[in-house]
Design brief:
With 163 residues, this protein is of the alpha+beta class. It is built from 3 helices and 7 strands. A 5-stranded antiparallel beta sheet has the order 1-4-5-6-3, covered by helices on one side. It has a two-stranded antiparallel ribbon with strand order 2-7. The longest helix is centred in the first third of the chain and has 16 residues.
């Protein structure tokens, strides 16, 4: 079977920026995730990506409890996915989430779903912005929690979160 081609990198890497932070989660396709043909329903993919992003965020100080404690939210402002080959019932795969360095008040995250044989099933990205939890105003400058993460990232504290 031939596969469609898609971009491998969605966000340009800034010169001199730290390498992306990556985390992988092992999964298996469950019965409730497939359509009558045994293929993963397309609406399930964003949940897989979210699962990867959540685990990555827990490890670098950008978890949902961290957002709440800081009085922030981080809604998705942009989302794109390329479906390359289908995942099927009971198939094992890996979710890889990669946080890409940028200087803005946003989170740029790339995702990849990789089958056991190394084939990429899907690639995607999200852009999240920061807003105030009480007023929903967009943060025009990076909030302190993101600056703390960046300082730790630059200092090399996240060596276990790299490829």
């Amino acid at each position: 079977m031939t596969t469609r081609r898609a971009k491998k990198v969605f966000f340009e890497r800034e010169a001199g920026a730290p390498a992306p932070l990556r985390w992988a989660v092992q999964r298996r396709v469950r019965f409730n995730e497939v359509d009558p043909m045994g293929i993963v329903w397309f609406g399930r993919y964003p949940l897989y990506f979210e699962e990867g992003a959540t685990e990555l965020g827990r490890r670098c100080g950008l978890s949902y409890p961290d957002f709440m404690e800081a009085g922030l939210r981080a809604p998705v402002a942009s989302y794109h996915v390329d479906y390359l080959v289908p995942l099927v019932l009971d198939e094992s795969f890996t979710i890889v989430a990669s946080l890409i360095w940028n200087e803005g008040a946003r989170l740029n995250t790339e995702y990849e779903l990789i089958k056991v044989d190394g084939t990429t099933a899907a690639r995607a990205y999200t852009v999240q912005v920061f807003i105030g939890a009480t007023d929903s105003r967009v943060c025009m400058v990076s909030p302190p929690m993101l600056e703390r993460c960046r300082a730790r990232w630059k200092a090399g504290e996240f060596q276990d979160l790299r490829p």
